[in-house]
């Protein structure tokens, strides 16, 4: 990393101008043709393949890899998109080391799984570069379906519904579609405006209108949608952010990690994006890692992730934790924020309490530590915006059954806003797709 | 040749001299095609090259020089001239004059030269082989090695003919007629020369099994047993060389492997063969040469009372399931995929016929093995006790031509 200029406070331009592009380039450069062939050759084409069973969208992984190996890249892309129309993004952001690649028998055999994610990217990139579409819409059904939230769940649902011949209108609160793919993941995982390219690729099927800047509860209500549409799918994610519940939480310099990540993703000039000299990120998930690593890449001198439990409980994958460590981020376990320290309303540090499990309850030990900081990011989880508007909730999320049905007839939900998922893009895709199948079945049975 | 000798090769076959006059011409486009394994590992190569396209005089001068520089290495001249006594009579003294240690009669090349009545066109007619070998023995004092083509139905016939003509040895196999692949844009065979292709000669690791069988056939044929054999066909490692020796070859020739990796591979072959012989206590090549020949027999003499079952080592198993699906779809449905509700692969002895397919498709070395059942145990598939007594097809009750038992040799 380039020399860090010692500038106090939250300032921009900490790096040499040419350093930004390098720091935020593709985390995993794509495989070229030769690399893809060599990697594809490693696949054993397992029977009832464990990788496929580990994939939330059940992509036929051995088949698409075999198709790559035989020079049939388009066939591979079709195999992937049949199950997961957002296969391109999932190839980039899936924690493969916890899913398909963890299940790969080569992981068992030699500790080196077939690089399934990169192979998936190879095939999907190839098809998307040629704008090759694999699906045709069925005859028009005359049914109209509202999809709220144009993120992974909504896009997957909209595409499947469009394939079935329904017309879809998507509403999204943000100026651009894509949801967390566009606003919520680290830049180095989705370079070159990939999220928007993917939205265009998915909607190219036709029959999908996207209306941006419209939020449920603000610009329209659920009953209004029910009145205008034959069915509603809710996939608006979690718009709220959990509070630290620590003293001085609203001091200048304390921000939501998700906002920082979104701002960074939308920034046209990273050198103009301010970041603290000493950054503390509170939380243990992917968002915490994305915010911490990107702070470091923007030139922060010292970045700490503080998590109140141990390494094993972190929801960030082992790979993400290693990535953070490799980029110079320090992860401190068993510590919880007690008080934000500030001078003149500005953050100067954070007082942390050491924690431990006592009688199966997380408790402070009484010892404390002060970390100097001029910027603190909160990454302790997101919440559903609003009260659910009459929908039954469970654990702060919209309660759904195995088909994605909510407590209100005619309304389905999936992705992060609904129960049952694990906050992964790929799971949201699976839920959106499967809810669409059920919506279709329900509408056509009428 | 100099580089090969410096790398440690014991001898070279200088391939292939034609008769005096304007030399042959080769195509100026692609001459080779290949098939590949994983990571473009070259498994099979074919060629449409002809014999040397340099003049006979230059070849002879160079051979003489090389032989002078390396007097203790073998130099064999490969020769292909028309099936006329005068042609052979003319070239043999010229070759002899170089100091070459012997000649190899190229009766094998299946492409190009065979259209002109040479190469495989001779090797496919035992009478011609015998005739030419006889001429060579008549017109030169040099030892004669007759190189055989595999493009025949029974390799013993040309070997017998070569022996009848007085050959000192046979070498085999030459390349196999092949179209290595088809260019699906041009709709033409590879290698494609200006839109057309022709069959070539196939060689490399892919042909080794064919070569081993043919070497063994000659080695165990009572009419040619004891005839020196030079083994050729896909020899790439010391292990390949050892296998050819075990089946009766006195030495081996290597071409494709050197073409793929360069001459340096001989270092591995020398050290590998030496280490294996030391490890197994084989004092010299005599100890291994031909040692497997007596174990090559006809199917009818195989022991039908021998019973083996596949065994999957669960500690080594990586649960890829290939053994299961191979057995399930194309063999005897003898490998379970689940046990106690969990993914688990295990052989069911009451279905296993011991076919070895699972062993061959398993990606993990030694994970699945075929184990002989001990005499006295019961084969669950047939319900019969394994006797341990040898019995073959010749005496089997299902054989309408059954007769009294014959030994395996």
UniProtKB/TrEMBL annotation, chain A:
Domain 4Fe-4S ferredoxin-type: 34-64
Residues that span the membrane, as ranges: none
Coiled-coil blocks: none
One Pfam family per UniProt: Fer4_20
Protein's name according to its UniProt entry: NAD(P)-dependent oxidoreductase
Organism: Devosia rhodophyticola
């Amino acid at each position: 990393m380039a020399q860090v200029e010692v500038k106090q406070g939250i300032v921009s331009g900490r790096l040499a101008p040419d350093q930004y592009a390098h720091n935020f380039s593709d985390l995993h450069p794509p495989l070229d043709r030769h690399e893809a062939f060599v990697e594809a050759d490693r696949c054993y084409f397992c029977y009832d393949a464990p990788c496929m069973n580990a994939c939330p969208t059940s992509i036929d992984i051995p088949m698409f890899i075999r198709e790559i190996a035989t020079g049939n890249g388009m066939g591979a892309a079709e195999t992937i998109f049949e199950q997961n129309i957002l296969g391109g993004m999932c190839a980039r952001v899936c924690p493969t080391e916890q899913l398909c690649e963890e299940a790969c028998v080569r992981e068992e055999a030699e500790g080196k799984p077939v690089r399934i994610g990169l192979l998936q990217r190879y095939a999907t990139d190839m098809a998307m570069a040629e704008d090759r579409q694999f699906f045709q819409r069925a005859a028009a059904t005359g049914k109209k379906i509202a999809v709220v939230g144009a993120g992974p769940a909504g896009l997957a649902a909209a595409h499947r519904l469009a394939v079935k011949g329904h017309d879809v209108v998507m509403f999204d609160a943000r100026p651009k579609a894509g949801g967390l793919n566009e606003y919520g993941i680290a830049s180095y995982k989705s370079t070159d405006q990939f999220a928007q390219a993917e939205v265009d690729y998915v909607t190219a099927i036709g029959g999908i209108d996207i209306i941006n800047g419209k939020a449920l509860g603000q610009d329209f209500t659920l009953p209004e949608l029910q009145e205008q549409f034959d069915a509603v799918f809710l996939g608006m994610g979690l718009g709220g952010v959990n509070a630290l519940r620590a003293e001085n939480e609203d001091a200048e310099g304390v921000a939501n990690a998700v906002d920082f990540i979104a701002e960074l993703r939308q920034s046209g000039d990273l050198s103009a994006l301010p970041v603290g000299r000493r950054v503390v990120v509170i939380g243990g998930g992917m968002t915490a890692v994305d915010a911490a690593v990107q702070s470091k890449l923007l030139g922060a001198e010292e970045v700490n992730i503080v998590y109140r439990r141990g390494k094993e409980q972190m929801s960030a994958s082992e790979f993400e934790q290693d990535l953070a460590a490799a980029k110079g981020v320090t992860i401190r376990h068993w510590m919880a924020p007690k008080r934000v320290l500030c001078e003149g309303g500005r953050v100067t540090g954070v007082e942390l309490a050491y924690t431990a499990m006592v009688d199966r309850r997380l408790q402070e030990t009484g010892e404390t530590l002060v970390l100097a900081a001029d910027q603190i990011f909160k990454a302790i989880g997101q919440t559903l915006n609003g009260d659910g508007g009459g929908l039954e909730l469970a654990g702060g999320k919209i309660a759904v059954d195995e088909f994605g049905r909510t407590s209100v007839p005619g309304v389905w939900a999936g992705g992060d806003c609904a129960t049952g998922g694990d906050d992964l893009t790929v799971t949201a895709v699976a839920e959106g797709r499967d809810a669409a199948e059920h919506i279709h079945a329900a509408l056509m049975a009428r | 040749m100099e580089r090969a000798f410096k790398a440690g090769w014991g001898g070279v076959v200088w391939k292939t001299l034609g008769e005096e006059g304007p030399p042959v011409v080769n195509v100026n486009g692609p001459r080779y095609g290949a098939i590949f394994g994983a990571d473009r590992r070259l498994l099979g190569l074919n060629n449409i090259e002809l014999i040397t396209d340099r003049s006979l005089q230059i070849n002879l001068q160079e051979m003489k020089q090389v032989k002078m520089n390396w007097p203790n290495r073998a130099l064999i001249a490969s020769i292909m001239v028309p099936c006329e006594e005068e042609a052979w009579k003319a070239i043999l003294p010229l070759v002899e004059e170089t100091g070459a240690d012997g000649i190899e009669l190229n009766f094998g090349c299946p492409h190009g030269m065979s259209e002109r009545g040479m190469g495989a066109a001779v090797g496919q007619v035992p009478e011609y082989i015998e005739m030419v070998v006889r001429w060579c023995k008549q017109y030169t004092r040099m030892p004669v090695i007759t190189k055989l083509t595999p493009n025949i139905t029974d390799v013993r016939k040309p070997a017998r003919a070569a022996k009848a003509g007085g050959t000192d040895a046979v070498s085999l196999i030459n390349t196999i007629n092949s179209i290595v692949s088809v260019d699906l844009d041009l709709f033409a065979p590879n290698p494609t020369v200006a839109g057309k292709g022709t069959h070539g000669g196939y060689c490399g690791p892919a042909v080794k099994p064919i070569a081993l069988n043919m070497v063994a056939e000659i080695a165990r044929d009572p009419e040619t047993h004891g005839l020196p054999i030079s083994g050729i066909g896909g020899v790439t490692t010391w292990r390949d060389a050892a296998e050819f020796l075990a089946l009766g070859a006195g030495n081996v020739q290597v071409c494709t492997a050197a073409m793929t990796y360069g001459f340096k591979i001989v270092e591995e072959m020398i050290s590998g063969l030496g280490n294996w012989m030391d490890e197994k206590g084989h004092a010299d090549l005599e100890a291994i040469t031909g040692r497997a020949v007596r174990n090559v027999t006809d199917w009818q003499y195989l022991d039908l009372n021998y019973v083996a079952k596949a065994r999957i080592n669960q500690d080594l198993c990586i649960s890829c399931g290939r053994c299961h699906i191979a057995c399930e779809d194309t063999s005897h449905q003898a490998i379970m995929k689940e046990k106690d509700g969990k993914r688990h692969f295990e052989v069911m002895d009451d279905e296993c016929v011991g076919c070895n397919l699972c062993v061959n498709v398993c990606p993990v070395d030694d994970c699945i093995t075929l184990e002989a059942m001990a005499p006295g145990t019961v084969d669950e598939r047939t319900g019969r006790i394994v006797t341990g007594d040898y019995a073959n097809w010749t005496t089997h009750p299902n054989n309408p031509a059954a007769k009294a038992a014959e030994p395996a040799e």
